[in-house]
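Write out the 3D structure for:
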Amino acid sequence: MPHLINNSALLIMDMQKSVVSQFVKDREALLPFQKAIETARSHAIPVIYIRVAFRPGYPEVSSRNKMFGGIPDRAGAGADAVAAMEAAVQIDESVQPQPDEPIVTKVRVSAFAGSDLEVILRSHQIDTLILSGIATSGVVLSTLREAADKDYALTVLSDACIDADPEVHRVLTEKVFPLQAEVRSVDEWADSLSGTN
């Protein structure tokens, strides 16, 4: 039995200002993300935003964690550091959520790690995830693996994923992701929805 559109959700992952500014040199690279969001909204597919953020003082950060362990040292302390961190974790203006679209905060790489994402998905009987985000080898890979283990049906929007290394992006989207997900361009995904109206 095919999945209904309203059992799907589009995840816009790690599109926060600090990440976008680090990975995106040409703002035209964000056009596929914008089209994916517009497509989802026009088909009544929920859009869920995922960001990584920590409480003041970084109680969630372990010094043993190679990726996150140095953040407290780099960020510093005090009110200015807290304000800077709060600004950095806001969703980039190019892909702003609407008031009724949830922003889920996680504390590790996967969208599920330390977040209430799964509660939101269960509450809306969502069993199909459309994945996009930065980076392909980070949040997209980690979320895909965990979501597949949780038996979600998955689609990865290949041109709405960005990685610092184009070859890593290519290998993941062409060789690794297809083992657990459909991999489509945003245009291909949008076209596939047009016959479901």
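The mean pLDDT is 87.
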